[in-house]
Amino acid sequence: MKKREFERxxxxxxxxxxxxxxxxxxxxxxxxIQLAKECRHRxxxxxSQQGGHLxxxxxxxxxxxxxxxxxxxxxxxxxxxxxxxxxxxxxxxxRNKHFDSLGKAGGIKKFLSRDESSYxxxxxxxxxxxxxxxxxxxxxxxxxxxxxxxxxxIGDGAMTGGLAFEALNHNGSLDKNxxxxxxxxGISIDPNVGAISKLLTRFASSRFYNRFREETLEFAEKAPFxxxxxxxxxxxKLHDSAKSFFSPPSMLFEQLGWRYxxxxxxxxxxxxxxxxxxxxxxxxxIVIHAITQKGxxxxxxxxxxxxxxxxxxxxxxxxKFIKKEPTxxxxxxSEVFGDKLDELMARDQKLVVLSAAMLSGTGIVKLQPKxxxxxxxxxxxxxxxxxxxxxxxxxxxxPFVAIYSTFLQRALDHIIHDIAIxxxxxxxxxxxxxxxGADGPTHHGLYDLTYLRMIPNMTIMxxxxxxxxxxxxxxxxxxxxxxxxxxxxxxxxxxxxxxxSPQLEFGKAYILRKGEDVALFxxxxxxxxxxxxxxxxxxxxxxxxxINARFVKPLDEKMIVNFGxxxxxxxxxEENTRHGGFGSGVLETLSENGIRVPTLLIGAPDRFIxxxxxxxxxxxxxxxxxxxxxxxxxxxxxxxxxxxNKRTGLQKIHA
Length: 655
Fold this sequence. Notes:
single chain; alpha/beta; Rossmann fold
């Protein structure tokens, strides 16, 4: 298929003719099947140009069409778990015309968002939340004596999360009318792990049961007087009983108080339509177990759903990704982490690394075959990953926990209660710190410095580049006085030779350039930005110091005090919220030492930064070099009395 032919398929389609989701209810089966095909084509078309979450959404096309055929979501309520499987829903709920703007500034969001559409009834970017939210909606519905239906779609590994089972257990006693569609594709981003995942899919794929069912029902169809004797109905009941007895999924859900229906082929629209129509008016908690294939309908994604989970632009005809121009020998921080971890694990048999369904994203998937007993994927269970690492530390191992900043938020209590109080030597490798681009506010890592800095016994380090990351990992491997966190961005780094990085000393910053007028204290990628700002200030005649803080906790108090007593303006710079982060620590140090010096805190503002490119987001947050330079000039030009400074040094600089 040529690309031009691929594009032409979407012309004069049923999809283009739909103006409101309710119109889907008027389509016949043939038209619904065609609609599903066109919806799948649209997802491939747009993600091939803009990037996005491809494989997960291809797997939910028929489920989405069947739900929109049976329910009116201007009245009924729907909650999607792991929002990246909801692209078909976005397309079919009045957003098809604008779907080309996926992931762009001001465009269609990659995840569910209540401020994007009235059809998005609950925002979702993290996993395992759908059943809890749906149950809350059902409780509210009943309190208000309303009659609409509430549906939760959970899948893509989210059933490995404990929150889902807490909600199942709760409604097992409340008995609220909630329909759960369990989209069982056996995959999250990396393959699902754990006994629950295996239990939920084992029987569904049983060749014995499915062959037995098909052959006996076929016999009943052909047998004489079958209809009069009720033979087919009797056999169906026997199958249901066998399923309940032999099927772990049925036993699991029904023991929790939910009526279980399944399994059903999640890509056979007639079967889905019939089953949903059958159960939609039943009372109580209902589960439909749909077996789907991640990447369905696009051969390349079917063959490698991990590779095509979250995609960058690609050629839809051959599936080849459009490579960006190489930038020298640059590597992602995640790759640098994986490479250095490999070296450490080869050297130290006690080192164990844990991740929560993100081995690939954190750069360590290649290590699992090499160290199968020491590279552990716990599933979508961040709290468990942290507490399990505490047990490993108590047992005498050296646990590294590799989790995205945004997901580590979910395990805060475990970090405090199970790690920090006991001063256990667990190393947190915090990927995707700072602004992350098109994934938007649910995935930004803008709060880790704040929520970790408040925890006693915690050490926090932030590398400027890959070389420092490697050096900090070496340091962490030998640190045994308590928990230590290293946070690094979604970015590439050209400098990876740790021998060229200045020697690390616990709690000590490093002066990159000296200055007498302005001191720029920065962490992480903001160190390079500080260098650019310093160049701009130097061109204006301001003697500017640049300090790579490296440690956020403990801070290098001696260096902060030294510059606080010397310069006319002290600036902190971080890609973290301004509140409670690195800059707050600098201010606390100045206050505790009785130093009154004009200060300026540079960090993310007190609002959520919407999706865009990382460069656009930094500009929106006033974090690029030119913006920071202008803010410093503005502060320098303020009269001293307006900023509470008794000295007149600022006027002298300006003069």
